[in-house]
Amino acid sequence: MPHPLRSLAITAVLLLASAAARGEDPVAGLLERLAGAQDPGDRIALVRQLAGEGSGRAATALARLIRTDPVPAVRIEAAAALGRIAGEETTALLLDLLGEGGISGVRQALARSLDGARRRAALLERLGSPKPDGPGRALLTEALGEFGDPASLHALLSVAADEKGDVTRRIVALEALSRRADAGEQVTELLAAILARSRDTTLLMAALDAIRGRPDPALLPGAERALTFPEGPIQEAARHAVDLLRFEAARRAAAAAAAEGYGSNPPTTPLPPPDRPRFDIVFAFDSTGSVCGHLDLIQERILLRCRALTDLGSDVRVGVVAFRTARQPETTQVLPLTHDLDVVRRFVADAKAGGADSQGAAIHLGLEEGLDRMPWRRGARRAITIVADSRCHDPERSLSIAKIHLAADQTRVHVLYLLRTRTKVPDSVRDLAAAGGGTVEVIE
């Protein structure tokens, strides 16, 4: 029996050929069918046909699906299909969409859609321009990890090694390099340099974390240096890295001895150390005047959450988003994920309050920055906590973001609701937590 998607694709090809023979517009017919397609499998098949048409209308329709379709697989297929449409306008659209972020699968599919000589060059040119903001620049840097050419490798190494550069971009570049098979010893040398010289908590923790993917015993002196730092999280990460590197050294020695005819065959080595749980958690709070009167409470909740996880031996990063009203999206402030809780404290304490949320809290802005555009680590458990004291300004948009991230990446959305003068939690807020697989905590 033929696969249903293949059968649908064959049917679509026949219909397009028939429409063309009658002088009709095949793209219009596809778009009409796509608008009425309820089944995700049908939409995926139609997306593949749209890519074959190569028109501007097809590209626009695919971009809309990437941004709004409720099913992750459809968004990912649309991102891949868009990459098959040639032209500079499509390249610019791909770069714009990449800067908007989204679920992990879409980010990766968009990056792979840019993996061609001209499009890679366009991405590097965009990175060198003033157009991207901080989160957008980090997303473009992240995409370089999907490529395999010398120019993008050089760009990643340059960003990661730039001691005067933005720390978030350096960390994103390190993680991207760890995924590239062509990085080799250059990454080991870079990690060794960071471990030997860096005093930045988040960068040092990122280098220790990168050892998980590249456990080269040559990094052992740097990891042992990190043991001398007074910060508890650094010591915990360094201990795990040292244990892992010593295990790897023993494994290699046993394998070499067996190859030379010594020792046991197969070689016996100690068990590797257990992996540390990794958590990336974001707090997004309404920074209008009413909520900003509770900054001490927000700080307290962040620290309690982090302490509970680190006490269990987890590797924890925290990001923060301060959003105002829907009329002031440009005032949204973002602290990318960091291990440094002192930086988190200062960011929350210095948050600039302003505006009033008479039309409801602009929670969708917090979710766009806190979910779509945050530089998440692959393999880390993710969650976002929304702190607000009123209903959602745009509940449909908020629910859409929460649902897609839960479905695609198991990222949960929790709500910390400040009851204040209200007698109950608004339905739109409870619906948001339910859609995001999270909980609502009420503070009076």
Identify the notable features of this structure and list them briefly.
six-stranded mixed sheet; 58% helix; alpha/beta; 444 residues; single chain; Rossmann fold; Leucine-rich Repeat Variant
How does this structure look, described?
The chain has 444 residues and is α/β, with parallel strands linked by helices. It has 3 domains: 4-146, Leucine-rich Repeat Variant, CATH 1.25.10; 152-259; 278-443, von Willebrand factor, type A domain (Rossmann fold, 3-Layer(aba) Sandwich), CATH 3.40.50.410. It has 21 helices and 6 strands. It has a 6-stranded mixed β-sheet with strand order 3-2-1-4-5-6, with helices on both faces. Helix 1 (4-21) packs antiparallel against helix 2 (26-36), helix 3 packs parallel to helix 5 and helix 4 (56-68) runs parallel beside helix 6. The radius of gyration is 24 Å and the shape is globular.
List the helices and strands and how they pair.
Blueprint: H1 4-21, H2 26-36, H3 40-53, H4 56-68, H5 72-82, H6 88-100, H7 104-113, H8 117-127, H9 134-143, H10 150-161, H11 167-178, H12 185-197, H13 201-210, H14 220-226, H15 232-259, E1 278-286, H16 289-292, H17 295-310, E2 315-323, E3 333-338, H18 341-349, H19 363-372, E4 381-388, H20 395-409, E5 412-418, H21 427-435, E6 440-443
Parallel strand pairs: 1-2, 1-4, 4-5, 5-6
Antiparallel strand pairs: 2-3
Helix pairs in contact: 1-2, 1-3, 2-3, 3-5, 4-5, 4-6, 5-7, 6-7, 6-9, 9-11, 10-11, 11-13, 12-13, 12-14, 13-15, 14-15, 17-18, 19-20, 20-21
